[in-house]
Amino acid sequence: MSLRDRDKKHLWHPLTQHKIHPDALPIQKAEGVWLYDDQDKKYIDGIASWYTAMYGHCHPYILEKVQGQMQQLDQIVFAGFTHKPAVELSEKLMEILPVNQEKIFFSDNGSTANEVGIKMALQYFFNQGKKKNTIIAFEDGFHGDTFGAMSASGLSVYNGPFEDFFIKVVRIPTPNASNIEEVKKQLTNILSEHEVAVFIYEPLVQGANAMHMFEAKYLESVLQICKENDVLLLADEVMTGFGKTGTNFASDQMDCKPDIISLSKSLTAGFVPMAVTSCTQEVYDAFLDDSVGKAFFHAHTYSANPIACSVAVAGIELLASVEIQENIQKIIQSHQDFDTKIRNHSKVKSTRQLGVIYALDLNIEMDRYGEKRYQIFDHFMQNGVVLRPLGNTVYILPPFVITEEELEIVYDTIYQLLEKIL
Ligand SMILES: *Cc1c(COP(=O)(O)O)cnc(C)c1O
């Protein structure tokens, strides 16, 4: 039996209606920006496998570090024990995180990193005898699929069956030049009507919301109001973290720094799952007490797994390298050149870019999971490029190691879509 058929027998894939789309494509190998399927056809990974493999797949430097770590120490309980990879990772993160961050808490994925951040914020106030029960979030944000993270997420296509069970979240629109005064007014009203503990937000780019972007200066004024009203700021940098927006973190592009930051995805460079939630000394200090009761009682079995930590350390070393930093600048420039070429095309409604993230909205009506979407996806796949359209948005978020020639293949495939398919 083929791998495809064996897959169908027992496997249940995420975000998949198996009745309509029963087939999954087997990938047998990956190297750099290239994925190889079971027929040895190769594809450029134009979205870095959901923004994880930013240094390319199976990077030899990371591989070497992981292999060494695997032979040394595989796993150890992180309550009461510690190890060098975790300590090193905390130090490496301090070198690149916004300066006010001081402490690192581990979990397993982006959703849990946000759960941890939300719980930290709620308990931060609880420990001080303040009962704050409300979270503010952006409309159409995405923070993950566990209950707290899902409550904070505004994308209803995922939330429908669960909405009756959510924690209390009040939403505001993402700010822009035309609505900023209205958003500020809404926010002020919410703050006077509710006991708000934390504002959770994807800074500058909402990934799952079709790479919706908004400007730093408008976000900054929203953050400022929260700060002035004793509301903690939780920046969900699960997608935006580690260089993708042109700075190490999107939060670097604003003066107002978050109290808590959640990170995952490219933290571990596509090798293994892991996440961290960082916070300020002030947040951490609210959990210190002579009684055990004020401690943060949240744990995941694989917290700070040494192998995952060693991957993350190696990944941050690569991010800091001259080669990767230069490549980021090259990709930014290439995207701009491509944009000049296509932004006035009749099939293009609008385009946007931040760092290595480039998105264009097609000038056609489309359902998020409609047939047209699969037709466009198939066009890309036939041409050896993995891009996953979100509604009528096509976006590129390539590994930092992609070459100019490889980028040209991606651009050309999009150009062919505009010229021949649509
Ligand atoms: C992917 C993502 C998450 C969820 O991360 P998982 O690892 O899939 O649980 C949360 N927030 C943002 C901004 C994301 O892009």
Cα gyration radius (Å): 22 Å
The number of distinct β-strands equals 16
Instruction: Note the run of SSEs as H and E.
Output: HEEEHHHEHEHHEHEEEHEEEHHHEEHEEH
Shape call: globular
Mean pLDDT: 96
> Which class of secondary structure composition applies to the elements?
alpha/beta
Tally of helical runs: 14
Which spans have pLDDT < 50 for at least 5 consecutive residues? none
Q: What fraction strand?
A: 15-25%
Give the proportion of residues in helices.
25-40%
Largest beta sheet: strand ordering = 4-12-11-10-7-5-6
Spatial separation of the terminal alpha carbons: 37 Å
Q: List each distinct ligand once.
A: pyridoxal-5'-phosphate
Q: What about the largest sheet? A: 7 strands, mixed
Structure description:
Homodimer. It is a single chain. It is built from 14 helices and 16 strands. It is globular, with a radius of gyration of 22 Å. The longest helix has 21 residues, at 322-342. A seven-stranded mixed sheet has the order 4-12-11-10-7-5-6, with helices on both faces. A four-stranded mixed sheet has the order 1-2-3-15. Helices cover 39% and strands 17% of the residues.
